[in-house]
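Sequence of Glutamine transport ATP-binding protein GlnQ (Thalassovita mediterranea).
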Amino acid sequence: MTVAAPVPAPDHTADTPPVISMRDVSKYFDDFQALKSVSFDVQKGERVVVCGPSGSGKSTLIRCINRLEAHEAGEIMVEGTTLDDTRASLDQIRGAVGMVFQQFNLFPHLTVLQNLTLGPRRVLGLSEEEARKRAMTYLERVQIPDQAEKFPRQLSGGQQQRVAIARSLCMEPRIMLFDEPTSALDPEMIAEVLEVMTELADSGMTMIVVTHEMGFARRVADRMVFMDKGEIVETGTPEAFFTAPKSQRCATFLQQILNH
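Predicted 3D structure, token representation.
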């Protein structure tokens, strides 16, 4: 893969508004409170890795950012737009935010190329030729242009996840959310997906990544966020997070996952 020179990490001390802002956000599933008054900011170009034990609220956190889950209390803003149930709000925010899931969520009856061109044609109004050209550009970027005419079932899990990343990039989002993108992959396929994500991070894309891949987090993250029981317990630089966790909960989690 041809990797561009890494874009310098953003200056998070600068007086610029965050591209994502969450204030006192709470989310319930019936009687279970998945998020408990969470406040969280992400700056343009920042790469944030969110980790924590199963059921800690990590996936719910990022799914609330593009309204895949509706929060019951608090405020979420993306690029200055307040997220609510109006069509204008949802369209604007979902146009800015791409998402890659644990399961690849590809349409099995469509070819790889058709999976990639569907959104740009229907949502962005691109012509078939424009959509195809864009799709091939991003398939090149994730190193599988030769798979364009195949169906998802003909691909390995790692290839399918790279198609899913390319599909999100075809909408040209400014923010990317990743919800444990390697958890459904065999170990030998994880590296190829993490390589694509690292290249994307080096290009300067704003990213929030929910993952237990701590090697990737050390290399790529500007900031680590540790969640437990619906709360953000600790944040810090990767160096501080891995070498001197502030809370016992975080220290115990790291000991368990790094020794696994």
